[in-house]
Amino acid sequence: MPIPMTREERLAQKLLGQSFEDLTEREKTVLRALVDGTAIAIDTNAEFSDQINFWDTLADKLARFVGSWPFIFGFLLFLAAWMALNGYLLIAQGDTFDPYPYILLNLVLSTVASIQAPVIMMSQNRQAVKDRISDDNRFKVHLKNELAVQQLQEKLDRILSRLPEASVPKEGSP
Q: What is the pTM of this model?
């Protein structure tokens, strides 16, 4: 005597055309939620925020700041002040703390860039992880909705097939 199929196995076969064992983990999760009637959507922001520590928050804030217009204008102001101060000292005293071609300024700019790039990359990597979590959640929700609509359509078709032909309105009739 064959072993009876579970509801998940029947739905996998009927709706997805695969055995339950052949499904991916997230497809199995969706089918279980469909059978149990449970919600599958999650608040990805809340789930992701549990994984963030102090350094992640600092990297995000720093990346947000260095990618802003106030930072760009402030940095341009700093560069202009550096060059103006050196020009003034050259004219007033005949000597500067960083003579042209501004080797010390070059060192400062290189250091800022070498620190800034990895911090921005850390922030972008974290955003990519958050996007993957959101995309996975969206996939599950859409798949569950699609399967639920399929089930509803099949139920509606069964109900309509039991009705006498005369009671079913023709297309285009009121």
A: 0.62
